Amino acid sequence: MSFASAPSRWADVGLATAGRGIATCGDFLAATTLTLALQSSGAGGRAVAGVLLAATLPLVVLAPLTGRLADRVDSRTLLIGAGLAQSVICLGLAYAGHPLLVICLVALLACGLAVTQPVLSALVPSMVRPADLPKATALNQTAGLLGVLAGPALAGFLVGGFGTRVPLQIGAVSYLALVLAGVLIRTRRGGTRRTAASVSGGTAPATGHAAPATEHAATAANWRLRRDPLLLAMVATLAGVIAAIGAINVIEVFYVRETLGASASVYGLVTGAWTLGVLCGAWIFARLARRFTDDGALVQCGLLLLAGCCLMVLVSVTVPVALLLVPIWLVGGLCNGGDNVFNNVVLARRVPEAARGRAFAAMGAAVQGAAMVGYLIGGLMLEVTEPRPLIVGCGVAGLLVLAVFVRPVRRAVRAERARCPQADTTTGPAGASGAGFATSAAAR
């Protein structure tokens, strides 16, 4: 489970997070622009769900391929190539008129995201020592969240003032940040570097700060998610909750704009509130994550945070005006951000370095596949009922899914501790590795 053996390369972390943040802003700028355009043109829930599905399906279908690409092809080549392709595709979206063409271009744009997500996620742990992993994860997540926060808000104001073409043109420029990051980042993996966490210039493989080998540790060649019961339980729980409450992504624009009568600008503000909460949660819980030496404890804490997300979805149906959703979404996002940090730290600790691209792609595919289920449910149900009762159903379904998964998670944790009885179940020295080792956001 290699990490950087030399001092952490924070300059590389900064370049990677900046590239991710700017490109993510472009992702959500384009997505929110298209969602507002569809809603304003009178399109129903099925049309919004169709665009969301087009933006999600490639992340699921291509995960086995893109995960292997991230592990076997030079990260610099992938970032530069995918960034250029996404820039051209987004520029095409600015001039596309036919709905079918728009959906096809959105799907192609998501193909680029399917490549860059596992590349960046697997690259960051190779830049830092184990003790710095939670901080680096929080930084990486913060950059993405700032992009998620800025994208919808910027789209709301730009669409209101300039229409849909200008925000999509700005989105096309944002993807060039990935190209610049690919050129400047010194840490590289994939290609001839896939056997260890290497950096440019011939730095030796990381060994001095590698996490200790354990019974559950697999070699990169035969690593499979299903062979790690604790990791499998964590991903399955996350995917189950997202499938249950994922419809909120389709329902939200109709709930805020039609049920509560808010403007496009207020919709952008409400959407950004959850993301701001995720950002705060990432830093708050990163401090906690680096003190835990037991992965099972992190996974169980994640269950409580997911429950907090579901409860905030339920509470949101009680508001009379859209602005009151802001504090509710902030709390939900706080829980969401903490769960994301826990999931990413657990995954990075438990997976061999040379297989991390596949691991992050597998988790991403599970999450995005579950989100697709939510999109389909939301799009279909909006045709027959109002947004408010659907939101109630999402919140209740999420809590029920958590209740179902509590026992399998606890069983996996007990089995983990039985194999590694020396693991501390509470806290330990900052950055210590336990017996072993999560965006899209969990609820968004």
Order of helices and strands: HHHHHHHHHHHHHHH
By oligomeric state, this entry counts as single chain
Uncertain runs are: 193-218, 423-444
Rounded mean pLDDT is 78
Question: Could you estimate the helical fraction of the residues in percent?
Answer: over 70%
Which fold name is given in CATH as the topology? Growth Hormone, Chain: A
- Quote the distance from N terminus to C terminus: 30 Å
Return the domain count.
Answer: 1
Number of helices: 15
Structural category is mainly alpha
Per the principal axes of the C-alpha atoms, what is the gross shape? globular
CATH class call: Mainly Alpha
Q: What is the CA-based Rg, rounded?
A: 21 Å
**Name of the CATH superfamily:** MFS general substrate transporter like domains
Number of strands: 0
Strand content: under 5%
CATH architecture: Up-down Bundle
The major β-sheet equals: none
Biased composition (Low complexity): 423-444
Keywords: Cell membrane, Membrane, Transmembrane, Transmembrane helix, Transport
Region (Disordered): 420-444
Subcellular location: Cell membrane
